[in-house]
């Protein structure tokens, strides 16, 4: 199988969209990702996957902390900004959760410290210990088959 075929196969799995954020030298940075999952309830651990080529990799290693921000269906523009798909003149303004930058109005904001790190293939898996979190009501932004989606689309398709 070739790389494109494998990517297409993985794209069949619908995922939520989140922004990973961290801060180094007083500057906050973010990147759009969908490789995120919960790992453990005790202790409260999650995992994110960052490619070896991503600038975020060294930033998280340097800071030792990051946030995961689960985007709402109204935040497609935010995802596109941090995926490099949309340019903006203004600097993105992060909020704070403890000492970690977070995305305003995200459905879920998780403030984490790096608990462990595993190099696997062309990515690094960061295990994050969740230190703080916020939750909000709303529907998540979904990514499937290379497109942004909303829950309504899936509900309508099932009916």
TrEMBL record:
<dbReference type="Pfam" id="PF01613">
    <property type="entry name" value="Flavin_Reduct"/>
</dbReference>
<dbReference type="InterPro" id="IPR050268">
    <property type="entry name" value="NADH-dep_flavin_reductase"/>
</dbReference>
<dbReference type="GO" id="GO:0010181">
    <property type="term" value="F:FMN binding"/>
</dbReference>
<dbReference type="GO" id="GO:0006208">
    <property type="term" value="P:pyrimidine nucleobase catabolic process"/>
</dbReference>
<feature type="domain" description="Flavin reductase like">
    <location>
        <begin position="10"/>
        <end position="150"/>
    </location>
</feature>
<dbReference type="GO" id="GO:0052874">
    <property type="term" value="F:FMN reductase (NADH) activity"/>
</dbReference>
<protein>
    <submittedName>
        <fullName>FMN reductase (NADH) NtaB</fullName>
        <ecNumber>1.5.1.42</ecNumber>
    </submittedName>
</protein>
<keyword id="KW-0560">Oxidoreductase</keyword>
<dbReference type="InterPro" id="IPR012349">
    <property type="entry name" value="Split_barrel_FMN-bd"/>
</dbReference>
<dbReference type="InterPro" id="IPR002563">
    <property type="entry name" value="Flavin_Rdtase-like_dom"/>
</dbReference>
<dbReference type="GO" id="GO:0042602">
    <property type="term" value="F:riboflavin reductase (NADPH) activity"/>
</dbReference>
